[in-house]
Write a structure and sequence with these properties.
Elements lengths: L1 E5 L4 H9 L11 E8 L2 E9 L15 E2 L3 H15 L9 H4 L13 H5 L14 H4 L2 H10 L16 H14 L3 H13 L3 E3 L28 H8 L11 H5 L7 E3 L1 H13 L5 H7 L22 E2 L11 E5 L5 E5 L4 E7 L10 H20 L1
Antiparallel strand pairs: 1-3, 2-3, 2-10, 4-6, 5-6, 7-8, 8-9, 9-10
Helix pairs in contact: 1-13, 2-7, 2-8, 6-7
């Protein structure tokens, strides 16, 4: 049963959302939510299904779920706010704020290069486990001492886990707060958005069980280049770990944000509205910095300052959409000309590392409805 509302003109979005619950099993929803804002007004607020694999808990409007790399887009907004406040510049050298980072030939790496996956640190050179990630200070020290895999700025390779370590350390050194606290106090709190990096235990009863893919990717069968091997195997990710309290409590801004679809969409909508950032900072955040095929994910996501733009079409038919998706299907994105902001949060992970037909179908439906409703206004 699908609950919630879709405004006049967006009825087709409800149909596509409902159809995701009848897809082939690898992509069939167990529980999910979708939210869409247009020029600050909520025009789609839908949810349905169950918050657990056993289907004993109904998905509620405020259900939270681990969102994997959809977290990166929200963390990028945190960094952008520091830029907006004049505490940080995208052209700054990382080492100007984090002196130890200058080691091993990284002295000229800029904040922009770090955010756009060009720093040459797509993974850890030494074997690292998920448990090691909980020691963020130790992981930051490892990356500060590590030599880049390529000359920074000459290539980009998705920093799947290390991006979050780098961003968390930079934020702490510039602002003094952890990124989870900054998010809560300066972005999520003022926007009324349910999104957390570092989930309080008191909210555990609102969290959906994350269900791993039915057909997980066999990394051993992939012909991985050095960047892929470093990004995907050090550390190797285990979706089942995301249901543990240790995972939920940690602050891992590359991968463990817990939020609702409404929370994702509200943060992107607040960014479009100028409530979080100036128009100039939003333009700088979404300006393409790396326009080439990514060594890790194999296509060109047109990386900007911690978000992808839409040259690949992952966010529907429009070119100037920006945002970030997460392993298994979740995503958040926004489009300034139409004022559209979208958040999608499922708990049954799809089998792809990048790309999911549920997400693609939802984006296409939302932007088609938005275009039609403008044309009939």
């Amino acid at each position: 049963m699908i609950r919630g509302d879709a405004a006049p003109g967006f009825e087709a979005v409800r149909e596509v959302f409902a159809a995701n619950f009848a897809r082939p099993e690898a992509y069939r929803e167990i529980g999910a939510a979708l939210a869409v804002y247009r020029h600050g007004d909520c025009v789609v607020d839908l949810w349905g299904g169950h918050a657990d694999r056993a289907r004993t808990r109904p998905w509620e409007r405020g259900t939270l779920v681990n969102l994997w790399s959809t977290t990166k887009g929200i963390a990028a907004l945190c960094v952008a706010q520091l830029v907006d406040r004049g505490l940080l510049g995208y052209a700054d050298r990382v080492a100007d704020h984090w002196p130890d980072f200058a080691a091993a030939g990284k002295q000229d790496v800029t904040v922009a290069q770090m955010l756009s996956h060009q720093a040459g640190l797509p993974g850890f050179a030494d074997a690292v486990t998920l448990d090691d990630l909980f020691d963020q200070a130790g992981c930051a020290a490892r990356l500060a001492a590590q030599a880049p895999l390529w000359e920074p700025g000459t290539a980009n390779g998705y920093h799947a886990a290390t991006w979050g370590v780098l961003v968390a350390e930079l934020v702490r050194r510039v602002d003094g707060r952890t990124i989870g606290r900054l998010l809560a106090e300066e972005l999520a709190g003022p926007a009324g958005a349910h999104f957390h990096i570092g989930l309080p235990a008191a909210l555990d009863d609102r969290v959906a069980e994350l269900v791993p893919p039915d057909r997980p990717v066999d990394l051993a069968a992939l012909d991985m280049n050095p960047a892929m091997a470093m990004a995907l195997a050090s550390p190797a990710l285990d979706p089942a770990r995301a249901n543990g309290r240790d995972w939920r409590a940690a602050e891992l801004p590359a991968m463990n944000g817990h939020g609702s679809a409404l929370g994702i969409a509200r943060l992107y909508a607040a960014a479009l509205a100028g409530d979080l950032l100036s128009a100039d900072t939003l333009a700088a955040m979404t300006r393409i910095a790396a326009d080439r095929t990514d060594l890790v994910i194999g296509f060109n996501p047109q990386w900007a300052m911690g978000v992808a733009t839409n040259g690949s079409g992952m966010f529907g038919p429009l070119q100037d959409v920006f945002g970030h998706s997460g392993w298994g299907g979740s995503f958040g994105c926004a489009h300034r000309p139409s004022g559209i902001a979208i958040g999608y949060a499922p708990n049954h992970m799809g089998p792809e590392l990048v790309g999911d037909p549920r997400a693609t179908a939802l984006c296409e439906a939302v932007f088609a409805c938005a275009a039609q409703s403008r044309g009939s206004a």
